[in-house]
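W.,

You were right to be curious about this one. When I first looked at the sequence I had no strong expectations either way, so I just let the prediction run and decided to look at it fresh. Below is the sequence, 379 residues in total, followed by the output.
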Amino acid sequence: MEERIYDYWVATLQDGYIGKLADIADAAGGAASLYEMSGRELMMKCGISEGLAAYISENKRDTGILEEEYYGLGTKGISYVNHTDMDFPQKLANIPSRPYGLFVKGGLPSELTGSVAIIGARECSEYGRLMAEYFADRLAKNNVQIISGMAWGIDGIAQSAALCAGGKSFAILGCGVDITYPAKNRSLYDKLCENGNGVISEYAPGTRAEPRRFPPRNRIISGLCDVLLVVEARAKSGTLITVDMAIDQGRTVMVVPGRLTDSLSAGCINLLYQGALPATGVEAVMEQLEIKGQKSFIKTARHGKKGNIAEPKSRDIPADLAKVADILALDPKSAEQIAQEADIRLPDVLKMLTRLELEGLSKEISPGYFVKAADLKYV
C-alpha cells in the first residue's frame, strides 16, 4: 500500500491527539512504519505513553478499508493535503502543534496574498455586525483573504461579506468538512466550497461537532492569518483562546474598539489594555499587513495601487434623504426620534427610511427602529 494511504490513516487519528502525530510519525520513520509497529515498539522507539500507544494500535484499520476511504474522498469533493505536500500551507508548518494533514473542500488560501482572520461573538450586537461587514468588505475589495470559523455571529457575517464583495474566504471547522456546522449557515458553507474559496479541517470527514474540538481548531484559524482582527468579545469569551494562540504564533492582534459600557466590548477593551493594536479603520489593518511582509499583494491589489485603499463609490442622494441618513447611527433609533432630530413629519421620515433601505443605507432591525446599514457610506 502506498505511503499516502498511511498518511491518511495517521490524519484520521488527529481527533485524539491533536498536534502530536507529526512528531510521532517522524520518530517512527514515517506513517507506514508507524502502522506496522506494535504498542511496545511505539513506546520504545517513539517515546510515547502507554495510553497513546494503545490509542494508535486500537485505531489501526484494514489496509483495504483505508484505501477505500481515501479514494472515496474525491467522490465527496474532498481532498487531503499532508504536512509534507508542497501545497500544505507554510504558515502552519512551524506553528506549535502543527496539524499532520488537512481535509479540504474547495481550495486553500494563497501564500502570496495577505490574510486577515476576523473573529468575535456569536451573539453579536448590531454594531458588531456592521463592523464585521465593514472590515470584511473593504479588505476583500483590497485583495485580502478572510479567514474565520463559519460560526454564527461575527465569523459568518464577515465571511459572507467577503464573498459578497467578490473576495476570497476560508472557513476552518471544528468538525469534518462534509458537515455543515452550524446548520443554519448552510448557504454560506455551499458558497465557501466554490470559486476558489474553501472549507478546511484537520478532522476526518464524518467527525461530528463537539465543544472539545473547537479550541484546537482555533490554532489553525490564527495560524493561517497574518493579522487577527477581533470585532466583539466578552470578558471571558472563547475568542480570547484564539487570541492567545495568535500571540504564541507571532501573529499581529488587532481589535475593533467598543464602548466601555458594552459587555460585548469588555474583552476587546482588555486586549487593548494588554497591548493589542486598535483597528481604527481598514488603512490600519492594511499597514500591519505591509509590516508583516505582505507588500506584493498590496501593490497588485485589484482596486488600486499601494496606498490607495479601495472604497465604495459615493452615491448621490437627495439632500432630504442625506439629512435623515446622517442622523442614523450604529445604535438603533426609533422613527419618532429620527423625525424629531430631522424636524421632518413622521410619515415623510418613514417614506425616506424605506427609500434609504432600498439604497442600502438604512436597516430596520426591529419594528420602528433603524440603524445605518452595512454600506457605512457615512462612517
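Here's what jumped out at me. Confidence is low (pLDDT under 50) at residues 296-307, 375-379. And, maybe more interesting for your project: The chain has 18 helices and twelve strands.

Coffee later to discuss?

I.
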